[in-house]
Amino acid sequence: MAVAAAQGNSTSEPYVWRNVVIGGGGFVTAIIPHPAQKGLIYARTDVGGAYRWDDSVKRWIPITDWIGMADANLTGIESLAVDPSDSNRVYLAAGIYSNPQSGNGAILRSDDQGRTWQRTDMPFKMGGNEVGRFNGERLAVDPNDGKILFFGSRRDGLWNSTDYGAMWNQVKSFPIAGTPMPFPTNAFPQSSSNRFRFPPQQVGIVFVQFDPHSGSPTNSTPVIYVGVSVLETNLFCTIDGGITWQAVPGQPVGMRPNHAVLASDGMMYLSYGKEPGPNTMTDGAVWKFNIKNGEWTDITPVKPSTSDQPFGYGAVAVDTAHPDTIVVTTFCHWKPHDEIFRSTNGGVSWFPLLGKAKFDHSFAPYTKTIKPHWMGSIQIDPFDFNHVLFTTGYGIWSCTNLTAADSRKSTRWSFADDGLEETVPLDLISTPEGVHLLSGVGDIDGFRHDDLNVSPRKGAFKAPPHFINTESIAFAAKKPNFIVRAGTLRTHTNETHGAYSLNGGKTWTSFITEPPESVGAGTIAVSSDGKTIVWTPRRGAPYFSHNNGATWTACGDLPRGLGVVADSLNPKEFYALDSHVGKFYASTNGAATFMVTQTNFIVAERVGSGFGAGNEGGIIYTTPGMESDVWICFRKNGLCHSTDAGVTFKPLSGVQEAYSLGFGRAADDKSYPALYLAGKVNAVQALFRSDDAGATWTRINDDQHQFGWISHVIGDPCIYARVYFATGGRGIIYGDSAPLSH
Question: How crowded is residue 298: how many other Cβ atoms within 10 Å of its Cβ?
Fold first, then answer.
């Protein structure tokens, strides 16, 4: 039952939300177990928020889904800290990017294990998805006095709180404010999940390590170590709780520290890389530092300088019960894969684990084709020394027989990502025949989802071509088993960036050719009868093909770079929009030529909106089963509707912002498809459904289920009230109207 909202023509309706299961898929940047409560483990990700392990059901629970689109910058977690003296307290340093478009970061604090949060905005930016993002932990809680926290920033030095993270002050006595030598954007290629290009990035302070034995439960900890990502002097220490700082004598230089862990016997273990990672690391080392006598020892398992390839070292962990037992990961050791080394004698000798390891891929079959890499975090369970977890660029692996390595037996690893969904979907379709959902996904191609609750058993799309990203996917409205897609090639081959399927995405065939000057995926569309494919490669001109990509012809009268959308009923009609100059284009001859139907059209009720030049957004959608029925979402200027192929448009009152629109099965008493909108209606930014062509709207999510950035929204043409949407890092979410309780 819908409940009347406080204002306007909108209501609210409860929904049940679930992930479409893929399993992992993105970079888990750290695992943090609580040292005093068994089974309490947290994970942070670069773009998908944070999670808590629920040991009772053996799955990860997302704890940042309350972050909405307006605060999507907070879904990149720069650092995570637990309070060793209070298992209920957990802290997040949140902020995804440090570029000018992004807002400042925030410290989030919870006293109920992440069920509810309080927020303190910080006066600087963070970089949860930037270089060095697995380094850490930058945020730390005093183990003897939980009121005290320290946080190391990228550009603005060291910060301190004395009231459980509510208020923060810069530690001005700390000798380094930020990394002196920034990393230029072109040195580190951007991932598909990045929405902005970066300015030069700094890494700054990468870890804060308290020495708990220097304090007591009634006195704060005076001795603290702080590591900075520089090639020169990079480890500093205070013995008076942060009032004064000194460089640690005898420390190695020439490489950057990225992780430090302090064993119970007073040995500190540090991992190093020449670069901060994750895209590049060409040298590295592991050192042991005796904090009692100041002695440094190089315990590097394999020196990259003597190896057959450049690489570094990622993370190090110590067994709390056996302080001489340590594990360390390599980083960017691509051939044959990254490695874990284990030592039971404090680094005197090492044994590699993964050469003989057995991996269970059954939970997420797509992982069979991905080697362990970007191993930026490793942890030995403080309550079970046989249990170790490490992170990769696509999820978490877990082993429960670690000590088998002592007798040179195989260790067994399972993919421990149940509930942790951190993909960046780039496009979604739901067809009226066959499978309910197909997805294009960043970094792991895309999937045909035969069962929404199980990772696709055949893994990612089986082609050729094999894509890194499937960036655009479309189906023929009258022949829904005919599907086309465009993506980014995984390897430099003679394959094209596009493919088609005749059987609903079960198998694929590469286009024989691609348009001239093609440099990437771009956007792709197909006519309702499947006979015309229109492809606008990235930075290219729109082209059409009548022979499944064997040859391509330029679309006439259409500027470069404009994506084209097919009419859902008439196979001859196509549409395009140049929102920067305010022109809407339509074709009535199968995309051979286009004409302008609107130029600088200004909606009378909303001065400066409509198709005025410079409108932000501007995405075209065509209504299933209806000829010439066109919608346009404008990010800042709402939603417009045309029923005459774009000759005239009407703005929808009450919709102030529109980011994505989808269509689903109509309600039983309606003929027009249900509309699903990610946007702002009556000043509320949320997810909405309309059963009456946009006359009224029902909010279908709530404040605890906002999921950060939402891009593509689609309805299910076969199931009324079913909606799917793509997030900026929380994977694919689907929702159904909640059954009424009696």
Answer: 11
Burial of 112 (0-12, 13-18, 19+ CB in 10 A): exposed
Residue 24's closest CA among 520, 342, 418?
418
How much of the chain is in helix, strand and coil states, percent to nearest 5? 5, 40, 55
Instruction: Render pLDDT for 541-554 as a digit per residue (tens, 0 to 9).
Output: 999 999 999 999 99
CA distances from 619 to 53, 599, 601, 707, 712 (A): 39, 16, 16, 21, 11
Q: Which residue has the tokens 């309600």?
A: 667
Q: Are 414 and 405 in contact (CB under 8 A)?
A: no
With contact defined as beta carbons under 8 Å apart, do 139 and 159 qualify? no
Nearest Cα residue to 352 out of 306, 398, 410, 309:
410
Summarised one tens digit per residue, pLDDT across range 268-288 is 999 999 999 999 999 999 999
Tokens of 306: 């003597």
Q: Residue 604 has what pLDDT?
A: 38
Q: Can you give the pTM of this predicted structure?
A: 0.94
Name the residue type at position 162: T
Q: Is the pLDDT of residue 5 over 80?
A: no
The long-range contacts involving 650-654, CB below 8 angstroms and separated by at least 24 positions, are 651/603, 651/605, 651/606, 651/609, 651/610, 652/694, 653/605, 654/8, 654/9, 654/10, 654/681, 654/682, 654/697
Residue-level pLDDT at 609: 44
* Residue of 207, 62, 209, 77 whose CA lies nearest to 135: 207
Q: Name the strands in the sheet holding 169-170, side by side, starting at the edge strand that comes first in the sequence.
A: 139-141, 149-152, 158-161, 169-170
For 151, the 3-state DSSP assignment is strand
Residue linked to tokens 């977690």: 77
What structural domains does the chain harbor?
23-415 (2.130.10.10), 425-735 (2.130.10.10)
Residue 104: its H or E element = none
Pairing of strands 358-360, 412-415: parallel
Provide the token pair at 472: 């655009």
What are the Cα distances from residue 9, in Å, to 114, 676, 706?
A: 34, 15, 21
β-sheet bridge partners, residue 511 = none
Residues labelled catalytic: 46, 443
Supply 243's token pair: 């009032």
What average pLDDT does this structure show over 315-329?
Answer: 97
Tokens at 412, concatenated: 């067994």
d(CA 706, CA 685): 10
Tens-place pLDDT, residues 48-103: 999 999 999 999 999 999 999 999 999 999 999 999 999 999 999 999 999 888 99
Cα 510 to Cα 486: distance, rounded to the nearest angstrom: 10
Select from 141, 144, 48, 50 the least CA-distant residue to 92. 50
Q: pLDDT value at position 193?
A: 38
What's the confidence (pLDDT) of residue 606?
A: 44
Residue 345's CB is within 10 A of a number of other CB atoms, namely 11
Q: Is 198 left (phi over 0), alpha (psi -120 to 50) or beta?
A: beta
